[in-house]
Write a structure and sequence with these properties.
By secondary structure, the protein is α/β, with parallel strands linked by helices. It has 2 domains: about 190 residues, D-Maltodextrin-Binding Protein, domain 2 (3-Layer(aba) Sandwich); about 90 residues, 3-Layer(aba) Sandwich (D-Maltodextrin-Binding Protein, domain 2). About 50% of the residues lie in helices and about 15% in strands.
Length: about 350
């Protein structure tokens, strides 16, 4: 009886073990099958969750420079704007309203940042650096354009060389990338004490030249080739002095960045897509730029090359130009205080 009981116990334990093993195999197989069929859904869910974690404010306020008072951005951001995805991509993260503000020059844009009426600014390196040096709470999120030319223009019967400017008046937009070029150029030529530099917006330059109020005007892209087309002459260009070429920068306010740390990547992803597209569709882009700026297409083509818009946010050439501009402004006392480039870049 005891022997039979022992055998029964062994049999029961063995049967139980077999049953447990079968159950484990079944569960494992079902789990594997379930995991295989549900994996894509889990990935899609995590992507949606990642998007859901980024929530931008409902209104985005963007400032940019338009010497002709046009309402359309003209760089790669303008391309993305015209194609609709500048807004559609950011709407995925909660933005519902886009406000665009155009300014005649950089210092005016800085004033708007100071007043708290902008979140993002796209403008020249000199006003952006001067603003930061003066305490403007901005962070650099990309170098949008590099190697921007300047044309120092005079009347056909006016000065022919830089030396001819001695004792005369010249003009440009104060606080702009053109002003940095002009002041640097005069210093290089030893003329900084013999030439008076006046503040004048590009739109007013031609009339001042025609009246003889000034001997030359330092024009930005667009305006420079346009005025040359009318018969004026360039006695110098920034392209002859590679260190004096300008850059266009994009900044975001520190308050906006602190509340929305993912914004720089979202913005730069849109911009990179736009740059790739305009490189593949340069003729269409030149026409779009012409329509947005009011300049003829041939003037737009004479103003810049497509590769002046880098795909990456911080190209080495751009960083070198920005740092050189900052150094000049600080050395000349034009920027209130120095700061490191690294501390300015949004991390």
């Amino acid at each position: 009886m005891k022997n039979r009981t022992w055998k029964q116990k062994v049999g029961l334990r063995f049967a139980g073990t077999l049953l447990l093993s079968a159950l484990l195999i079944g569960v494992t197989a079902c789990g594997a099958k379930e995991k295989q069929t549900s994996a894509p859904a889990a990935n899609a869910s995590s992507t949606s969750a990642a998007q859901g974690e980024i929530k931008l404010p409902e209104t985005l306020r963007i400032g940019f420079i338009s010497a002709n008072n046009n309402k359309t951005i003209t760089g790669p951001e303008g391309w993305a704007q015209s194609k609709g995805y500048l807004e559609s991509e950011l709407k995925k993260y909660g933005v519902k309203e886009f406000k665009y503000f155009n300014f005649p020059n950089g210092p005016n844009l800085n004033e708007a940042v100071t007043a708290g009426t902008l979140d993002v600014g796209i403008y020249g390196d000199t006003p952006a650096i001067n603003g930061k040096a003066a305490g403007l709470k901005t962070k650099l999120i990309n170098i949008s354009q590099i190697n921007m030319n300047v044309w120092l223009v005079a009347k056909p019967d006016g000065p022919k060389t830089l030396a001819d400017l001695k004792g005369k008046k010249v003009a440009t937009s104060q606080g702009s990338y053109m002003s940095r070029y002009l002041i640097s150029l005069l210093k290089e030529q030893g003329l900084e004490n013999d030439v008076k530099v006046l503040h004048l917006l590009p739109a007013d330059g031609e009339a001042a030249l025609a009246r003889g109020d000034i001997a030359a005007y330092a024009y930005p892209t667009g305006f420079g080739p346009l005025i040359l087309k009318k018969g004026y002459v360039a006695i110098d260009e920034a392209s002859k002095h590679p260190d004096l070429l300008g850059t266009s920068l994009t900044v975001v306010t520190e308050d906006y960045l602190k509340a929305n740390p993912a914004f720089p990547k979202l913005w730069n992803d849109i911009r990179t897509r736009a740059v790739k597209e305009i490189r593949a569709n340069s003729e269409e882009y030149f026409k779009l730029y012409a329509d947005g700026s009011g300049y003829p297409v041939d003037v737009v083509k004479a103003s810049f090359q497509i590769d002046q818009w880098p795909e990456e946010a911080f190209p080495a050439k751009g960083l070198t130009l920005v740092n050189a501009t900052k150094k000049f402004l600080v050395d000349q006392g034009l920027a209130k205080k120095d700061f490191t480039q690294d501390e300015w870049i949004a991390k």
